[in-house]
Design brief:
Strands 1-2-3-4-5-6-7-8 form an eight-stranded parallel β-barrel, surrounded by six helices. Helix 1 packs across helix 2 (48-55), helix 1 packs parallel to helix 11 (253-264) and helix 7 (142-157) packs parallel to helix 8 (193-211). With 265 residues, it is an alpha/beta fold. The chain is globular and about 45 Å long. It starts with 7 loop residues before the first strand and ends with a helix. The chain has helices spanning 19-36, 48-55, 83-88, 99-104, 109-121, 134-138, 142-157, 193-211, 213-216, 232-236, 253-264, and strands at residues 8-12, 41-45, 62-66, 93-96, 125-130, 175-179, 221-224, 243-246. It is 42% helix and 14% strand. Bound molecules: 2-phosphoglycolic acid. 2-phosphoglycolic acid is lined by residues 12, 180, 185-186, 224-227, 245-249. The site of 2-phosphoglycolic acid has 13 residues, from strand 8.
């Protein structure tokens, strides 16, 4: 049985903006989201250095996420930020294993699993990013890659109680999946709605088989990769596409708001 999932749109600011810009843009977006009273959840994944300041400004209208979180509670990990630290400043959760982290910072499915479990164990949310490279797609490995990214990370969490991946708020499952084909990120070459849907169906089927049909239907699956206001409509009404993870088009609040409003219609 299909259940209704709340739409979730997250802007990933990556390593852009300075403190003044981040603060002004976040306030601007929060004000607009409050004013429009959107039916979707809008989030921002901000650079960690700005999170404490932005957390004071959320007024619970824009959900605040980190872009990465360590798997340990504390320790000798120079330069890292723990989920406990993030929780202490009221950040809701974090992106996990964004493809830029997989490609440039040695993220693996196993380290991703450690991060997911550290977040979930604190009741925080994890937006787990998966997706194939162009070479993998051309070799016909889409399904295999997606399933191994999901399965290996879930096994590495060592969490055996499926309900722990959902938590207690049906509108905001603790785990969400972001499907982001690597070849579509920051390239302007978005996946077609058909391509995105094919991948989302693979992910949904896997979630149902891993967690059981009822729970597997509750997770949100976001599409990411060159999403903008002008193309978001193609995705947002497809079955199994429950929102978007947006990079470049989230940097200007006015443009991002326009994109969010299209998802709320
Ligand atoms: P993009 O980035 O929207 O700029 O392609 C998406 C992402 O990396 O999350």
């Amino acid at each position: 049985m299909e259940i209704k999932r709340k739409k979730l749109v997250i802007g990933n600011w990556k390593m852009f903006k300075d403190a003044v810009q981040a603060s002004a843009d976040f306030e601007n977006l929060s004000d607009s989201v409050t004013e429009k009273n959107l039916s979707i959840e809008v989030g921002i994944a901000a650079p960690s250095i700005f999170l404490a300041d932005l957390a004071r400004k959320t007024r619970n209208t824009v959900s605040l996420f980190a872009q990465n979180a360590h798997w340990a509670e504390e320790g000798a990990f120079t330069g890292e930020v723990s989920p406990t630290m993030l929780k202490s400043i009221h950040v809701l959760g974090s992106l996990v294993a964004h493809s830029e982290r997989r490609q440039m910072f040695a993220e693996t499915n196993q380290t991703a699993g450690g991060r997911i479990s550290a977040l979930l164990n604190l009741g925080m949310r994890a937006i787990y990013c998966v997706g194939e490279t162009l070479v993998e797609r051309e070799k016909g490995l889409l399904k295999e890659i997606l399933i191994s990214q999901l399965e290996q990370a879930f096994i590495a969490t060592k969490i055996r109680n499926s309900q722990s991946f959902i938590g207690s708020d049906p509108n905001k499952p603790l785990l969400s999946i972001a499907y982001e084909p690597v070849w579509a990120i920051g390239t302007g070459k978005a996946a077609s709605a058909v391509e995105a849907q094919e991948a989302h169906t693979i992910i949904r089927n896997f979630l149902q088989s891993y967690f059981g049909e009822e729970l597997g239907n509750r997770f949100q699956i976001l599409y990411g990769g060159s999403v903008k206001a002008s193309n978001v409509n193609e995705y947002i009404n497809c079955p199994n596409i429950d929102g978007a993870l947006v990079g470049g088009a989230s940097l200007v609040p006015k443009d991002f708001l326009e994109l969010c409003m299209k998802c709320a219609n």
